[in-house]
Amino acid sequence: MVTDRSPLVAGVELGGTKGVALIARGRRILRQARVPTTLPGETLVALSERIAEWTGDLGPLDTLGIASFGPLGLDATRRDFGFITQTTKPGWSNIDLLGHFRARFENPIGFDTDVGGAAIAETLWGAGVGQSVVVYVTVGTGIGGGIAVNGQPVHGSIHPEIGHLRIRRAPGDPFSGICAFHGDCLEGLASGPAIAARSGAPAETLGSDHTAWSTVAEALAEMVVSLILTLSPQRILIGGGVMTGKPFLFPMIHAATLALLGGYVAGLTPISLARMVRPPGLGDRAGPLGAVALGLRAMPNQTHADL
């Protein structure tokens, strides 16, 4: 329950095209602003300055959460902890993201991928409530995925890189894929830029009957099957710009998933699969609330009421 005594949380959701700064009381967002993701210096300064301005009106922060595009250094024993590591976004490799905010704010800071934060937020407040294994996938400019197990983000030496799964190609498909590292990985075949490269038009302009969607649905079904067989999740929540406003994609993904599984998973029916593989419950708030969730988790002596 959010009250006036709930923690005052600052959040940063850093994406490849835009960054979001926000202030929340508990999980109730009070202020939110977007800035374009340009060069690291100007983008991070704009985000941190916006938070500093708001705290002048709302009072001192209790905690801060950073949910960022990756790859990220999340192993506290490594020298690249807190950094954006080797990314395809020009100018953003080897950027000390956590260090920038630590130099400006003395609060506890939670830090994880944007999709990892969203998976936690969905577990706490969205379509994953009451579920022990929740996967959040975003399909947009890139494809990324976060995994929450019992409300905790999964990462070890690195964090999950679901978008770079190597999936089976459709027989006879001549499209080589666009991933700079792998060509025809999931991201290289089914992200927004991949759809545009294949079809010759932006994904958002394609009608529901366009042939590109069957290829996208097949690729995402390959991902879903891999996740079901490796993680046994109760929820696989698929959002992002490519999925927005395209409810027709989910039945296509469900049908392709069941065909690929071939009846192997006992008890998995069209109805139960549709309950498992669905849009995020928080909609486009999953990302910003992911930053809030990371901030709340970073607080010492956090309680369930805080979350």
What does this structure look like?
- The chain is α/β, with parallel strands linked by helices.
- The protein folds into two domains: 8-112, Nucleotidyltransferase, domain 5, CATH 3.30.420.40; 127-279, 2-Layer Sandwich (Nucleotidyltransferase, domain 5).
- Helices cover 34% and strands 20% of the residues.
- The protein has helices spanning 40-58, 97-102, 114-125, 186-190, 192-199, 212-231, 249-261, 270-276, 286-298, and strands at 8-14, 18-25, 28-36, 63-68, 83-84, 95-96, 109-113, 133-139, 143-149, 152-153, 235-239, 277-278.
- The strands form three sheets. Strands 3-2-1-4-7 form a five-stranded mixed sheet, sandwiched between helices.
- The radius of gyration is 19 Å and the shape is globular.
- The model has no long low-confidence stretch (mean pLDDT 93).
